Amino acid sequence: MEPNLPRSDWNKILKDNFGIDNFRKSQEDIIQSIVSGNDTLVVLPTGGGKSLCYQFSALIMEGTALVVSPLISLMKDQSDALLKNNIPATFINSSLNSREQANRLHNLIDNKYKIVYFAPERLMNNTFIEALKQANISFIAVDEAHCISEWGQDFRPLYRKIPTIFNYIRRVPIAGFTATATPDVQKDMIINLEMKKPNVFLLGFKRDNLSFHTEECKNKPKRLISLYKSMKQGSMIVYAGTRKRTEEIASILQEDRINCKAYHAGLETAERKKIQEQFLNNDIDIIIATTAFGMGIDKPDVRIVANVYLPLTLEEYYQEAGRAGRDSLPSNCYLLYSKEDEKLQNYFIREQFSGITEFRRIYDSLYFLLDKQDEKTNFLHGKLVNYANLLNISEKKLLAILKVLQNKAILRFYEDEKVAYLRINTYLDNFNEIISKFNKERKIIMKRILEYKSNDSNQTIEVPIAKIGREINMTIEEIENHLHALEIFNLIDIEKSSVISGIKFLRPRLQNDQISSIFTEIKQRKKVSQNKVKIVREYASTEDCKERFIMEYFDNNSGYDDCGKCSSCLGNGHHSAKKTINKIRQSTFNLTQNLISAKQIQKDKTERKTDNQDVGNLNIIKSMLEDHKGLEEIAAKLQLTTPEVASFIEKEIEAGFVFPKFWFLDRSLLNNIYKIIKNAPYIRLSQIKEKLDSDISYPELRIAAAICRKELKSRMMYQK
Ligand SMILES: [Zn+2]
Predict the structure, then answer these.
(1) How far is the CA of 544 from the centre of ligand 1 (A)?
(2) Phi, psi (rounded to 5 degrees) for 498
(3) How close is the Cα of 698 to the center of ligand 1, in Å?
């Protein structure tokens, strides 16, 4: 293919190779970004057509695109689909025998593929790395890129290895794809994939059919009843923070002869399933649930989602509210809150982080016990409550500590967990073909089992069937039936299943400094959680447009208009001076900036050489500015680039360092930038530049923006 293929030819290629007539909105822009050599981050909901973006880019670029994907089971499907369209693609993973692997690596070196899929585990494999060195790589696409973030549920430590590819091959563009859009995860992806000035596409996130309302409310059940009565058709979901509250609200509503049910994790699986089905079949009108409800539920005609508690994060809120209006018809999302709800938020945070002070003692004691019990299996048998007694700590606190260690893949704990030990026969030729004929339920189970598969295909793996059951809403018996069916098809061999309680240690004992760093991280996480809670409270109370508040939180971008249909826009409440609105937005902005997280700061710290050197640089910059020297001269003196100098100055301004006047920035220009930033605190430099009638350079603009932000911040503090 031509490297600089005109865009007018794209549609023909799309039709010829993918059988599709037109690109969806924004797909073209994403492809343009990749093929022009930019790092690109794409946030697109599942089913939004993200794979076409990298497949098409791969096709029209020279060389081979590498696609990192976490799911071995999907690689074959994807590459088969491409082959069907005559696009040379393949995958390299542990399901292949070594001869076949070698064969494919040869072809890769011979430039015979446009796309090669692999799992991040491959990056530990020397033969694979050697092949990459000789291949002609066009770009790297990272699917499910949020797996790189520790903040999310799906953290996969090996994703952190991806940028190490560039120790061996030349730096090619890297494109990350995900459906997870929280700002800290976005930031984490950019940092950990080591992206350089990526173009960020956040798509399909805004839901135009939803209207957002917040109300401070004393009698919530009463308000729920009136909302219910105002609803003409469809159903309603109420989210209450605790099991107890779901039950309480349900009984009050039932007294009013409203057809509703409580739903929470304390109910038997069979009972929960029944309630779900009744809800889906419109046998009940309202479901009053904890967050346990909703995973995998896609009822199209939910007209109202009402939260009667304050969630811990705006992400969580938006996810729950987003269950309204899946059919694209107008729907409403209410947040009914009272001051009391803040106590519940505080309680959850205290619980989540309880035991931080005891962290080190507990970690050490557990290892001490392990040494005594059984070093070989690295398994500490017994119930958690026994260990809590033994270590003189409450069960809850112990659980909180174990969860942290489990998230860090340091250990795994079990409490009466039903576990199956089995081997997966992925070497079967018709493995995927058999699976493709299964019904949806069985497919899901197979997919979940494959997630526990290790790199060594012959190894026995441990599959926590009780845990999977809870997650996908199936009883243990149902899962076991499916497992036996899978065994009959010869896809798996079950060795045994048993119920276990205890702690399995996955890593050798940590050094003191490693424990300290985890401890520090927990403390930072606590701070981040507290900040996120503040954002939810601000969302509840802000008189600014609710929808715009949410969008700007996720998108870190301005340019969203007031929605005209939320409780603020409709003016339920008091209109306030623009000043107050700006103040709230600015403080949210600052919080979001704080969330840019300890990690970035840490990284900066290691990248900066020494504090002494910084002081030295500051003195040089200061005196050169006084001598009316320009950025380029300063950069040459410091042996840095001008953008590096600008970022350095920006950080120092943020940290409060007072520079002499930047003689090259004139006052009227600064005034204009100040006005722009005041109206849109999240605005990007490129957008400021667009609005200015000036040919200011980016490094200069970066400094100017930092000055204006600082000024804005100090004026706001003055106004308080
Ligand atoms: Zn609005």
Answers:
(1) 7
(2) -155, 170
(3) 33
| Measured distance CA(136)–CA(559) in Å, rounded | 40
3-state secondary structure 212-237: EEEEECCCHHHHHHHHHHHCCCCEEE
Q: How far is the CA of 305 from the centre of ligand 1 (A)?
A: 17
* Overall pTM surpassing 0.90 (yes/no): no
The reply to whether 206-339 and 605-719 are identical in fold is no
Residue 201, token pair as written in the block: 């596409």
Around ion ligand 1, which residues have CB less than 5 A away?
A: 545, 547, 562-563, 566, 569
CATH fold for domain 206-339:
Rossmann fold (3.40.50)
Q: How far is the CA of 328 from the centre of ligand 1 (A)?
A: 18
Given pLDDT bands bounded at 50, 70 and 90, which one contains residue 299? confident
CATH placement of domain 605-719:
1.10.10.1390
What distance in angstroms lies between residue 7's CA and the mean position of ligand 1's atoms? 38
Tell me the one-letter amino acid at 490. N
Rounded distance between C-alpha atoms, residue 448 and residue 468, angstroms: 8
User: How far is it, in rounded angstroms, from Cα 257 to Cα 429?
Assistant: 58
CA of 383 relative to ligand 1 center, distance in Å: 51
Mean pLDDT of 3-13: 80
Q: Which CATH architecture has domain 7-202?
A: 3-Layer(aba) Sandwich (3.40)
Mean pLDDT of the chain: 84
Q: How far is the CA of 304 from the centre of ligand 1 (A)?
A: 17
3-class DSSP state for residue 527?
A: helix
Distance 681 CA to ligand 1 centre (A): 18
Contact in structure between 423 and 460 (CB atoms under 8 Å) = yes
Q: How far is the CA of 324 from the centre of ligand 1 (A)?
A: 17
Do 140 and 66 touch, CB atoms closer than 8 A? yes
Sheet of 379-381: strand order equals 379-381, 492-505, 411-424, 461-464
d(CA 64, CA 115): 5
Q: Which two tokens stand for residue 377?
A: 């299996």
Beta carbons within 10 angstroms of residue 416's beta carbon:
10
Residue 567 alpha carbon to ligand 1 centre in Å: 7
How far is ligand 1, taken at its centre, from the CA of residue 561, in Å?
Answer: 8
Q: What is the CA 562 to chain-centroid distance, rounded?
A: 26
Tokens for 379, please give them. 């398994």
pLDDT in tens, 321-355: 988 998 889 999 999 999 989 998 998 888 878 77
C-alpha 562 to ligand 1 mean position (Å)? 5
> Which residue carries 């220009």 as its tokens?
669
Cα-atom radius of gyration of the chain, to the nearest Å?
Answer: 28
pLDDT value at 593 more than 60: no
Residue spans per domain, the chain: 7-202, 206-339, 356-517, 605-719
User: Which residue type sits at 19?
Assistant: G
For residue 210, the CA-to-ligand 1 centroid distance in Å is 11
CA–centroid distance, 569 to ligand 1, in Å, is 4
Query: Which residue is associated with the tokens 């490297």?
Result: 3
